[in-house]
Amino acid sequence: MHTKLEAIKGDITKLDVDAVVNAANNSLLGGGGVDGAIHRAGGPAILEECKQIRARQGGCPTGEAVLTTGGNLPASYVIHTVGPVWNGGRKDEATLLQNCYYNSVRIASEKNLQSIAFPNISTGVYGYPKQQAAEVAVQAVKEYLQKNETSLKYVLFVCFDDDNYTLYQKLLV
Ligand code: AR6
Q: How many C-beta atoms lie closer than 10 Å to residue 6's C-beta?
């Protein structure tokens, strides 16, 4: 595997990578948290494309992902994926979260991108326990990379809080 997986701490909207991943919701129309930050920093071109995708396919199901322009972001593209709401682990949350990471790296690879940055999907408003979410995230990306050829050279896990940063650093030694 020639792809480097790395944890960093910071604001995902500032990163000069090929694609940043957005922790969106099923509507694709924006929201709070990282979703709000990406739309604010990226400007109206992102929402415009999200609306076109909605018109075609009616939003984005949980676990799936769609690609738009990065608008005014340093990143060229945004991959919007929808994490599961944590429900105590009884609603197949792990599989759905795994699908978010898997489908996002798949889309980035299909676009021949070299770098992608993920936020800690579902661990904010959606309440997914951070340790479990981090394990699913790293495992899902590694599994994709083991099974598929990829153009990706860097996969960054962008942590906004110290808890997540510590967790990811431990998982990625
Ligand atoms: N850069 C990197 N990470 C960030 C940033 C940022 N600028 N801002 C927040 N985070 P959340 P969710 C972290 O709540 O749990 C939205 O309203 C944050 O600390 O953004 O998947 C959507 O529209 C946390 O670790 O996403 C949905 O309705 C992580 O990003 C809902 O929230 C995810 O927190 C999705 O909830």
A: 13
Mutate-to-test residue for ligand 1 from 46, 78, 125, highest number of ligand atoms within 8 A of CB: 125
Indicate yes or no: pTM above 0.70.
yes
Would you list the domain boundaries of the chain? 4-171
- SS3 state of residue 22: strand
Which residues is 20 bridged to in the sheet?
Answer: 78, 117
pLDDT in tens, 94-149: 999 999 999 999 999 999 999 999 999 999 999 999 999 999 999 999 999 999 99
Q: How many angstroms separate the CA atoms of 76 and 137, rounded?
A: 23
The second-level CATH assignment, the architecture, of 4-171 is: 3-Layer(aba) Sandwich (3.40)
92 noted as active-site residue? no
**Ligand 1 atom 5 nearest Cα:** 34
